Q: What sequence folds into this?
């Protein structure tokens, strides 16, 4: 599709079902993102966010329940953590890594980089990378920008510079892409055809928007709708042999009946033959190897023209 | 519309509509005869656009006159209850977070089936609004397939394009002027 400055982030060409392949002949890939950002607002984690008892529940009982479930089902998950959280919760980070899961970056404080002063985004990214490297023993391979409860959009927030800055810092993937339902390339510089592999995210599969959204106590509680969405999309993507990602937080989906929903959904999904429940960096590495940007990213030239009578 | 908005200045409106029709006709390879927009009926008719689908004032198609009582335009009504974005898109029409009610496919299947059944019983008409970036998601494609298959279990359901429906109405129910 033609490139449109300030509007498009990809080549807008979907991969056909038959062209998607997974390692060792497996049929579909299942990405499980665990959101460890307690921030409700764009500024990132505040003292108020950390004071919620449910946050403490999530980092204790909820996380233990998650880890037990993932181990039982053979799922490798990706924990998207603000660097601050990784630094402050050493034992939890150790337990996550010991269980074979991945820890990816989600900002310094789970913040919206659009609120930062010019030049600060790169600084926050560098500090986040350093902290995560110290906390986990290796530089993070992926970066997430998951939406917070009070965000005005359910897409996560990036600036025009974010993807380019991640590329420069050697990140292998960006984990919050809404432009496709299979991995795709987010174009950071159209003139140079520079891009970063991006993994799909969709808020209809994120517990943030169904379990007391937007706020605990007053928010909408719709666990059945969330589970129906998970099942419907999983079954559709399984039939097509594509990819499916769900995003959950131990503070939300670790709790009682909600945990039963997550467990029964994942049990059903993993009972299908050929489901590859891999970490995001493994998924990204596979996609990068089988569908590299050099052959699979095909942006057409821009057709954009400015008109004097434009209203926008 | 050229920019999903109709300019107030009639000269600019003409320029925008002319450009929009030219672009769409290049893609379609045939004249464009319908719209969903608030473009001026007289201008639409002048450009060969003979039907609109931009009102919920009646359930069945009807001829709508402009403010001066002229330029009859065939309207093929739609309704927000049959619009996928109403149910599936976060922040639709700038709604605040606490007002979100994003629904799942089974809930919408039930709502849309009820709407269809109501019109089927009276031999009526329905016009669904689907956005590819909304209903193109795999689970919703499956739901729409399920819905269409169930509709087809009933005899005599016609699935025309808006253009074919408009032609049918022009042939069998032409505009006969305002009844005195």
A:
């Amino acid at each position: 599709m033609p490139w449109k400055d300030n509007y498009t982030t990809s080549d807008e060409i979907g991969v056909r079902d038959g062209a998607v392949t997974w390692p060792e002949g497996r049929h579909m890939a299942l990405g499980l993102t665990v959101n460890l950002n307690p921030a409700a607002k764009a500024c990132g984690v505040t003292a108020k966010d950390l004071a919620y008892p449910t946050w403490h529940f999530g980092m204790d009982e909820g996380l233990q329940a998650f880890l037990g479930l993932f181990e039982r089902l053979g799922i490798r998950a990706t924990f998207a953590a603000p660097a601050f959280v990784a630094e402050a919760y050493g034992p939890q980070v150790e337990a996550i890594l010991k269980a074979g899961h991945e820890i990816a970056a989600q900002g310094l404080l789970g913040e919206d980089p659009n609120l930062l002063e010019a030049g600060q985004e790169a600084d926050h990214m560098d500090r986040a990378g350093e902290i995560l490297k110290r906390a986990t023993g290796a530089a993070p391979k992926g970066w997430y920008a998951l939406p917070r409860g009070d965000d005005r959009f359910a897409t996560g927030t990036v600036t025009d510079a974010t993807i380019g800055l991640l590329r420069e810092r050697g990140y292998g993937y960006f984990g919050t892409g809404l432009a496709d339902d299979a991995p795709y390339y987010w174009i950071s510089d159209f003139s140079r055809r520079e891009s970063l592999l991006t993994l799909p995210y969709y808020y209809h599969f994120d517990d943030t928007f169904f379990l007391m959204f937007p706020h605990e106590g007053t928010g909408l509680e719709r666990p059945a709708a969330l589970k129906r969405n998970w099942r419907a999309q999983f079954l559709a993507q399984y039939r097509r042999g594509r990819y499916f990602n769900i995003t959950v937080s131990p503070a939300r989906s670790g709790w009682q009946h909600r945990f039963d929903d997550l467990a029964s959904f994942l049990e059903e999904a993993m009972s299908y033959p050929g489901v590859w429940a891999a970490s995001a960096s493994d998924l990204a590495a596979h996609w990068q190897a089988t569908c590299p940007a050099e052959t699979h990213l095909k942006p057409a030239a821009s057709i954009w023209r400015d008109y004097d009578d434009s209203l926008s | 519309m050229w920019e999903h908005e109709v300019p107030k200045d009639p000269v600019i409106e003409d320029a925008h509509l002319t450009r929009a029709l030219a672009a769409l006709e290049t893609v379609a390879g045939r004249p464009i005869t319908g719209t969903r927009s608030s473009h001026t009926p007289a201008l639409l008719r002048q450009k060969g656009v003979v039907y609109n689908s931009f009102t919920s004032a009646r359930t069945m198609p009807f001829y709508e006159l402009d403010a001066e009582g002229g330029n009859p335009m065939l309207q093929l009504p739609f309704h927000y209850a049959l619009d996928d974005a109403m149910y599936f898109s976060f922040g639709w029409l700038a709604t605040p977070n606490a007002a979100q009610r994003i629904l799942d496919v089974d809930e919408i299947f039930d709502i849309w089936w009820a709407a269809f059944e109501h019109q089927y019983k009276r031999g009526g008409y329905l016009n669904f609004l689907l956005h590819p970036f909304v209903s193109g998601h795999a689970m919703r494609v499956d739901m729409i397939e399920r819905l269409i298959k169930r509709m087809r279990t009933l005899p005599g359901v016609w699935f025309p394009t808006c253009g074919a429906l408009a032609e049918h109405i022009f042939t069998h129910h032409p505009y006969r002027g305002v009844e005195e």
In short: Residues 80-151 of chain B form one domain. The mean pLDDT of chain B is 96.
